[in-house]
Write a structure and sequence with these properties.
homodimer, 438 residues, alpha/beta, Rossmann fold, 3 domains, six-stranded parallel β-sheet, five-stranded parallel β-sheet, 17 helices, globular, EC 1.1.1.23 (chains A, B), oxidoreductase (chains A, B), Histidinol dehydrogenase (chains A, B), Histidinol_DH_monofunct (chains A, B), Hstdl_DH (chains A, B)
Chain lengths: 438, 438
């Protein structure tokens, strides 16, 4: 049974605090294994990657077959139905349109001193996207990771995806081809992350690695962080729905289940200002669970980590939501925009009952890679910004240096950094001698 | 003696590749110690923080004296000279003006489908800034970390700074007061990071921790990453100067030394298209080193890690620079803007010989917290963006859902995520029954 709480009851604060810090995943310590795999790939390159792929994926490769050939990709893509292709194309188009608006602007201005200041954005040169194999091989995730990189202008974009026993999802290859991916390697696990970070004879190293993966992939990403950039290490998915009584309990129930079905560790929470409505939604969840294909996953998730919280009013709902800082937040209320004004921490907001969270997973346009585990307090979903970086610009004139240089020299001396001061002083001295050109 | 290389010589590529991967710091493994300190602070709160401060900083504190009082701060600030105060105020004003331009814009638009999409930026609620003690206690770093947070609108901004034997730098407290810092705690090391991340009875937890520190601080930041946001883990400082022969060798020499004096592991590199000019700069460095206050630091840095590279032309200089991806890049050439067009990876560019890097350290306006160790390939300097996060927004209408919902349902089915599809289908079914309200 999910947790039922009411903010009007004694003990609510303690129970809510416990919900906030609830541990949903057992950390698996694979760090030593992963360190060994990375060292092996760094030492032996392709040979190590091929050997590990044979061991873990039961697949015999050569340096020549590490990547899918154009013919293989075409043959796989040909298997995709017309309907699936059209849906994926529409998703790609909408995700691209949304992310194109995120491209940051360069800036340059001249101050009264005559100095010019500004910054410039440039894309990461090469990015590697990890795509899990098996059940978690989601074509939508390929679009969500690759399109922001493509929009940013990343020159070389590659995928590493395990293909256990040689099995590949044709939709993954179609998604790759729709989003400008250059090469798809049949390599997974920590060995894929190591190859992307350090390179092998066949796989050139990249500068940034993104994409979800299992405990081995996550541990490897943590280890190569610094050598390359990485995206967040995502935890299990979460949804918070704030709904008033004027909703169909079944709609809210399927919305809650759409997160619960991802993972037994996923968490679905309903906050409502009507206790009876909360009960009705819980009953609707149970009804749907009877026939849901993934009830073996969604059931435990809902019963172990689900919660229905009754509050006095929607203002209180917003406060609790900000403490949860949910990955996904649905506002199924009469005035969703008004309520959203009070939301300070959330990965993505879905406004109104006609916006089920699943729209954001596939086709809305915004990214579905979002901060989990309360990290929306300090981080954002994946975006074009993850594939660009800023170079700041400064250009002094002799007059500008004469105006602000002495203060820099003074601060350098106060920090006992003499050479810093001298680098300004040497120039000011020439100005004082009247030798300034320009 | 620094390394002298010429791109025209045989063996250059190998020598340059070696320079790129040169290890400048021995990693100190303090991870177990740090794990113990964090566990202790989590378990015992203030008591642990006070005990560790007594042990490491020889300072006896109580919960009441963990933070500086307003009177103590006023008394320390009163010690600052008028000249130092004016310099710091000018720096704060210029840094604030630069960073104010970085505030990202919200967006919201309506598509032809009728759906509304967009995003909204909100500040992190609370940020903690670590300020090292002793020699590395730089007031300029307080401004560079705190002002972007202040500009972002961070509500609560605190500093943790060790004060060994009770000694504090008055300029640090003045910088804190100029940049909107609410509270300064006399706590340093891993215990400060643990207190900021998990909170104690006296120190409320924050959402984001930034600022430089020693190996213990860096290891602690790595460990609390995920619980809170952190900025980059900075390595030793670096400068690359690209200079043609029309420069005063002494100017370039002091610029190179202004990084070398930071740390024996710092790295200063000159690339020039004139071998004789390179020799003249190297000679000027040696001359300056004879009297430089910090020659015991700058000398080893220059001799162990410094390099003078002669290239055929400036285009080649830009190529090599992009492979180095320097933290600081000075372009002391006739057409610095033209050369900057070819630079794809650098933390900060200083355009023209009248812009010594030290201007950027103190007073130019751009941030001096910049990506080191080649990480400018994939990351940016500190900015307002580090203290805000994006919430994406989506609002469907019944008509919009009717138009794009079926594709979402199709993709959900292709990924075997039935409840995702059902959450769309439940709404489409009502539309099909002609019940749509609004």
């Amino acid at each position: 049974m999910p947790l039922f709480l009411s903010s009007a009851e004694a003990g609510f604060e303690a129970a809510f605090a416990q919900l906030l810090t609830m541990k949903r995943e057992d950390a698996v310590d694979v760090d030593d294994t992963v360190a060994g795999i990375i060292a092996d790939v760094r030492a032996r390159g392709d040979a190590a990657v091929i050997e590990l792929t044979s061991r873990f994926d039961r697949l015999t490769l050569t340096p020549q077959t590490l990547a899918f050939s154009a013919e293989e990709i075409a043959a796989e893509i040909a298997k995709v139905s017309e309907e699936d292709r059209a849906a994926l194309e529409l998703a790609a188009e909408r995700i691209r349109a949304y992310h194109a608006r995120q491209m940051p602007q360069d800036a340059r201005w001249t101050e009264p001193t005559g100095a010019e200041l500004g910054w410039r954005w440039t894309p990461v040169s090469a990015a590697g996207l990890y795509v899990p194999g098996g059940l978690a091989s989601y074509p939508s995730s390929v679009l969500m990771n690759a399109i922001p990189a493509q929009v940013a202008g990343v020159e070389r974009l590659v995928i590493c995806a395990p293909t256990p026993d040689g099995v590949v999802n044709p939709l993954v290859l179609l998604a790759a081809s729709l989003s400008g991916v250059d090469t798809v390697y049949r390599v997974g696990g920590a060995q894929a992350i190591a190859a992307l970070a350090y390179g092998t004879e066949t796989i050139a190293p990249v500068d940034k690695i993104t994409g979800p993966g299992n405990a081995f992939v996550a541990a490897a990403k943590r280890r190569v962080f610094g050598r390359v950039g990485i995206d967040m290490i995502a935890g299990p998915s979460e949804i918070l729905v704030i709904a008033d009584r004027d909703n169909d309990p079944d709609w809210i129930a399927v919305d809650l289940l759409s997160q619960a079905e991802h993972d037994e560790s996923a968490q679905s929470i309903l906050i409502t200002d009507d206790a009876a409505f909360g009960q009705a939604v819980a009953a609707a969840v149970e009804a749907r669970l009877e026939t849901l294909e993934r009830r073996a996953i969604a059931g435990p998730s809902w019963r172990d980590f689900g919660a229905v919280i009754t509050v006095r009013d929607l203002a209180e709902a917003a406060e609790l939501s900000n403490r949860i800082a949910p990955e996904h937040l649905e506002l199924c209320v009469a005035d969703p925009d008004g309520l959203a004004e009070h939301i300070t921490h959330a990965g993505a907001i879905f406004l109104g009952a006609w916006t089920p969270e699943a729209i954001g997973d596939y086709i809305g346009g915004p990214n579905h890679v979002l901060p989990t585990a309360r990290s929306a307090r300090f981080s954002s979903g994946l975006s074009v910004m993850d594939f660009v970086k800023r170079t700041t610009l400064a250009k002094m004139t002799p007059a500008a240096l004469a105006e602000i240089g002495p203060a820099a020299e003074r601060l350098a001396i106060s920090e006992s950094l003499e050479a810093h001061g001298l680098s300004v002083r040497a120039r000011l001295d020439r100005l004082n001698r009247g030798e300034a050109a320009e």
